[in-house]
Design brief:
This protein is α/β, with parallel strands linked by helices. The protein is built from 30 helices and 36 strands. The chain has a 17-stranded parallel β-sheet, with no helix packed on it. Strands 18, 19, 20, 21, 22, 23 and 24 form a seven-stranded mixed β-sheet that branches. It has a seven-stranded antiparallel β-sheet with strand order 29-30-31-32-28-33-34. α21 crosses α22 and α27 runs antiparallel to α28. It starts with 6 loop residues before the first strand and ends with a helix. Bound molecules: guanosine-5'-triphosphate and magnesium ion. The site of guanosine-5'-triphosphate (GTP) has 23 residues, from α5. Keywords: Leucine-rich repeat, Nucleotide-binding, Repeat.
């Protein structure tokens, strides 16, 4: 008879308790049916005595409770084979277990055991797998040596430093985990374990291996990362059958020739060591398939490398290569090559010899040209972050397909060296931006009128000669328009910070910051690599002698400004370093978090482009200084000229003529196709529909890149529309985003579409709730005569730009859609919220808080965009949401959230006088896993937005100690927010962390999000429901290939039943159970698989 599985959950406890009270109850039949009990996280400190009534139970999962002993009756469960008691409160080994002679798998990890009782344990004859990770063993419990049937023993995260000789009695032991212990020398007793297959000894302090290791003939996998090796232990060469060796994060700089004795070696991880020259001895490993030498200081590859015929995957990223090591081209069987993050400047034609190459990673190098031969390759190529001119960057970033089309187009038509640069004028209102930008364009002096203020942005072009032109963006200086900057500024252009030189007062402390400093910060935050230069206007109104004085004063200030920034970074870094010193050695993950914070600060500081050294001084009245400015622009453009197919340039011109000639507000796909194919070579007309479409995308992306049009290629609904007249878009933004009540009111009152009463309702909606209905939108834009389809496209675009999100005001009226614009809100926090979210955390409630601090200014629009993005999650969960000017309150199913923006009261910034700004996300509730879910989601949204729109922004982030929050401490302990960036579970999570400011130890779960294992366990139901059988089978293959699971484990998964042809929840469940017992690599691989299968929803769920 087939094995029938009946699972009982937490509710089983009630029934068992009732049985305990009335033993004769007929309910006892039900319990007999159960084969599995799942009572994890059930808040219990003991198991009911009546548990032995579940006679047929085979597996009990009772992790994450507060158990410290077991009822004696448990020994009467004859069929029990699996028992999970991890994450409980056992301080002594539960003797009651010893009667379970059929028990095969016992999990006691994450308890506080320090020894194992003698004799009794011998009765656990069937035990094959034992987990004792993260307990308090200081010596190896010798009693374990009696468990002679043991196959797998987990003792990670203890304090072991030696092993008894008796261990050799464990003849069947195949897998042994001893990582994260205190071994300073290799325990030679292990050498007697001749059948051991996998040995994990990473995170110890080993520096040598004894020769005796060669006796371990069964050993296939050996992990030694993060130890203290400075010399490759020659003894390892005796492991001739070893297949995988991990020596990552040691201090190796050489490899002995003897390594060629390791004929079985297939995988060798040696990244993050101290190699400065390529270890030639490795070339003797002809059977090696995967070699990871990334994160060293290599700059060469020996010719002998071609001997490594078996090599398939090769990591050389993050080294010091300056030229492409030609010898690599001899590796004709190579499938994946990682050379990113080096300083490569060239790619040889011979690269095509690597015919099997599937993945070639070359991002973040110094490559300017790609060889045309690259078109003959069929590989997944990544060349982003290189200073490419041929093909131009923006083409290359689109992948090998686009690169091929570019080179083909160059064969079909001439190559034209052309340069069209986007120039953006930023600065305070009335600085003289419009005047100088018009003067530049016309080549003669022009002054605006006093009342001629720019709203949002004015765009123009200046064609210096046939091949050099500039797209000019002149931004309105007023606060309200700053939200437009990310929409219009292209990162490859030039930014001029413009100020009125005659009004500039070197003696006034605030002047520099207001007119120059803040604008530089803004530019560098949004476009860290962009070239910024200064222009002082009104030269005609300044005495000649004053010009020099003022400019040198500004130059001094510029230096101070850069210095101050540097000091800010340094102060932050020092704080990190000091904190690191304070942290006990054992809390590796906390140190790691501080380390990544320090690294991040370093990167941010390093990527800042210096300000152009010369300050341009000009007069738009007399034209003085303008010729010099023009010369600079032309030279700048010449040096960044690109090689483009003539045909593209022609097509681009056709589209640009529509800016002045056509009457359309936007261009539809048919029109674009016509314009582009007008003067195309005949060969293009014969292209397939898809090829034609791709070519059009290439041209549009190139136009969008240089600021000629606005086009969103990553949004399917907008892809087929081109905003060629940007002023239309600007006008709509102006009309909708204005804070000017009178203006809005006038427009509404004038509208023919609505009554006076409706007009005042709409006005109320806009200014008190930030809500703009579709109807309101069309009233506000009435004067632009947009078609209704165009209004739709515009609203689509505003959503895409995350200026607003859609809300259904009234379910019964689907036509009445509205949009919420946080940017428009002007009211303070609603007093009624004081009861929903009182300032003191209510009893029995936990508050998790993340604070992100910005140097004395919160970037314009950052908070608003974040608020919009939150809707993606909150909207789905049908939550109650209340917004005000600087915050959002939301009631979710399991918890409450409050997100705010404000100045930081407790400003500890000693460098600058101005208080820092802070965006904070706080979540309250009683279930930690829910709270972490919401908080980490908010964190990753905010970080994504910063990465997308403000990649150079300086910020620091903290997790506020929940204990201090509940105690209302004035000076709460702050933990580094980078804890949230650690790969879930790579770092060992301590049980407790010290709240430094109050001196209390608090549970680590309050400061660390759940580990990946916990996440997988929590999300198991959804994963089981959504991972399909074909996907699962693919994954099994990958996990097998990478050696993470064994054949037997894969078979166990496959033998589970499937529901139908697609669904197989049982299989997935067993698979997840298996991988949660594996090292973190299992999690990384799972994420990668889900990504490759494009299961983004599931990926989000577990990240
Ligand atoms: N004498 C003199 N006046 C100038 C010069 N440049 C600008 N102005 C005047 O200064 C005022 C402001 O100039 P705009 O060019 O409109 O300033 P803006 O920076 O575009 O201002 P916003 O659009 O509000 O951001 C106008 O009255 C101009 O006539 C200059 O070089 N010399
Ligand atoms: Mg202006």
């Amino acid at each position: 008879m087939a094995y029938r599985q009946v699972t009982a959950g937490r509710e089983s406890l009630d029934l068992l308790h009732r049985l305990q009270l009335s033993p004769q109850s007929t309910k006892s039949d039900t319990v007999l049916e159960w084969t599995e009990l799942h009572i994890d996280s059930a808040d219990i400190d003991n198991l009911p005595e009546s548990i032995d009534r579940c006679r047929n139970v085979k597996k009990i999962y009772a992790s994450r409770n507060m158990l410290s002993s077991l009822p004696q009756s448990i020994s009467n469960l004859p069929h029990l084979t699996v028992l999970d008691l991890s994450h409980n409160a056992f301080t002594t080994f539960p003797i009651a277990l010893c009667g379970l002679t059929n028990l095969e798998e016992l999990n006691l990890s994450d308890n506080q055991l320090s020894d194992i009782p003698g004799e009794d344990i011998t009765s656990l004859k069937g035990l094959r797998i034992l987990f004792l990770d993260n307990n308090a063993f200081a010596t190896f419990p010798e009693e374990l040596c009696d468990l002679t049937n043991l196959e797998e023993l987990h003792l990670s995260d203890n304090k072991l430093s030696d092993i008894p000789g008796d261990i050799t009695r464990l003849k069947g032991l195949r897998i042994l985990f001893l990582d994260n212990n205190s071994f300073a020398t290799f325990p030679k007793e292990l050498c007697g374990l001749t059948n051991l297959e996998k040995l994990y000894l990473f995170f110890n302090q080993l520096s040598d291996i004894p020769v005796d290791i060669a006796r371990m003939e069964g050993l296939r996998l050996f992990w030694l990362h993060e130890n203290a090796f400075t010399i490759f232990p020659i003894a390892l060469c005796g492991l001739t059958k070893l297949e995988e060796l991990d020596m990552v994060d040691n201090e190796l700089s050489e490899i002995p020739v003897d390594i060629n004795r390791m004929e079985g070696l297939r995988i060798f991880w040696v990244h993050d060591n101290a190699f400065t020259t390529f270890p030639i001895a490795l070339c003797g490993l002809i059977g090696l398939e995967k070699l990871d030498l990334s994160h060293n200081k290599l700059s060469d590859v020996p010719v002998d490398i071609s001997k490594m015929e078996g090599l398939k995957l090769f990591w050389l990223n993050n080294n010091d290569y300056t030229t492409f090591p030609i010898a690599l081209c001899g590796l004709t069987n190579l499938e994946k090559l990682y050379l990113d993050n080096n300083k490569l400047s060239d790619i040889p034609e011979d690269i095509t010899k690597m015919t099997k190459l599937q993945i070639l990673k070359l991002e973040s190098n110094n490559i300017t040209h790609l060889p045309r031969q690259i078109c003959n390759m069929e590989t997944n190529l990544n060349v982003t972050d290189n200073p490419l001119v041929q093909p131009p960057k923006h083409i290359a970033n689109r992948g090998l397909g686009a690169i091929k089309r570019y080179f083909e187009a160059l064969t079909d038509t001439n190559a034209i060296q052309s340069s069209r640069i986007q120039v953006s004028f930023l600065g305070e209102t009335e600085a003289g931006k419009t005047s100088i930008s018009r003067t530049l364009q016309l080549g003669q002096s022009i002054l605006t009128k006093k009342a001629d203020r720019t709203r949002v942005v004015e765009q123009g072009t200046w064609e210096a000669d046939e091949d050099i032109a500039f797209n000019i963006n002149d931004f309105g200086g007023h606060d309200a328009y700053r939200i437009g900057h990310p929409i219009f500024i292209s990162t490859s252009g030039l930014v001029f910070v413009t100020f009125n030189l005659s009004k500039y007062d070197a003696g006034n402390e605030g002047h520099f910051k207001l007119h120059i400093g803040d604008w530089i910060d803004k530019g560098q935050a949004q476009m860290p690599g962009i070239q910024i230069a200064l222009i002082g206007t009104h030269l005609d109104e300044v005495e000649i002698t004053q010009v020099e004085t003022k400019c040198s004063a500004i130059n001094r200030k510029l230096e101070e400004h850069a210095d101050e920034k540097k000091r800010w970074y340094q102060a932050q870094k020092e704080t990190c370093e000091n904190k690191m010193k304070e942290i006990p050695e054992a809390q590796k993950s906390l140190r790691q978090a501080y380390q990544s914070k320090a690294d991040h600060l370093e990167t941010l500081h390093g990527q800042m482009q210096p300000i152009y050294e010369h300050i341009f001084t000009v007069s738009s009245k007399t034209y003085k200084g303008v010729p010099e400015l023009r010369d600079y622009l032309v030279t700048f453009a010449r040096t960044s000229a690109e090689f483009l197919p003539e045909m593209w340039v022609e097509a681009a011109k056709n589209i640009c003529t529509k800016k002045t000639e056509g009457s359309e507000n936007t261009l539809s796909w048919e029109v674009i196709e016509d314009l582009i194919l007008q003067n195309a070579p005949t060969s293009w007309k014969k292209m397939s529909k898809e090829d034609k479409e791709q070519t059009i995308y290439d041209i549009l992306s190139f136009l969008a890149h240089r600021g000629d049009i606005i086009w969103y290629d990553r949004c399917p609904s907008l892809m087929k529309v081109v905003f060629h007249k940007q002023e239309i878009l600007v006008n709509v933004l102006k009309a909708v985003l204005t804070h000017d009540k009178d203006e809005v009111s006038q427009k509404l009152q004038k509208s023919m579409k609505i009554t006076k009463r409706e007009a005042s309702e709409i006005e109320e909606d806009i200014f008190s709730r930030g809500i703009v209905s579709k109807q309101a939108m069309s009233c506000l834009c009435e004067s632009f005569k947009l078609l209704s389809t165009e209004v739709d496209v515009m609203t689509e675009l505003m959503q895409k730009l995350e200026l607003c999100y859609q809300v259904q005001e009234d379910d019964s009226l689907p036509s009445n859609t509205s949009f919420h614009f946080p940017w428009l809100l002007s009211e303070e926090r609603q007093p009624e919220l004081d009861t929903k979210w009182p300032s003191k955390v209510p009893p029995d409630t936990i508050q998790l808080t993340l604070q992100v601090l910005f140097r004395y200014k919160c970037p314009d629009g950052l908070y608003e965009k974040f608020s919009v993005r939150q809707h993606k999650h909150l909207g789905l969960m049908k939550t109650m949401r209340m917004d005000w000017k600087d915050g959002v309150y939301a009631k979710l199913e399991q918890c409450k959230m409050q997100m705010t923006r404000g100045q930081n009261q407790a400003n500890s910034n000693a460098v600058s006088q101005d208080p820092d700004w802070v965006i904070s996300i706080a979540v309250r509730g009683s279930h930690l896993s829910d709270l972490w879910g919401v908080l980490t989601q908010g964190h990753s949204d905010l970080m994504d937005i910063i990465k997308e729109d403000w990649p150079g922004l300086s910020y620091s982030k903290y997790l506020v100690c929940p204990h201090c929050v509940s105690e209302e401490s004035q000076d709460p302990t702050l933990f580094p927010g980078e804890i949230l960036d650690l790969t879930l579970g790579t770092a060992s999570k301590p049980r407790q962390v010290l709240c430094v400011n109050t001196g209390v130890s608090i549970p680590a779960d309050l400061v660390y999000p759940p580990s990946w294992q916990e996440v997988l366990r929590n999300e198991k139901p959804k994963l089981c429901e959504n991972i399909t059988e074909p996907c699962l089978l693919d994954m099994l293959d990958v996990f097998l290939q990478e050696g993470i699971i064994t054949n037997r484990e894969a078979e166990t998964v496959k033998t589970e039943p499937s529901t139908d042809r697609v669904k197989c929840p049982k299989k997935v469940e067993v698979f997840l159970d298996i991988i949660t017992r594996k090292p973190v690599k299992a999690y990384v691989t799972l994420c990668r698989c889900l990504q490759e299968q494009e299961q983004t929803d599931l990926l989000e769920l577990i990240q």
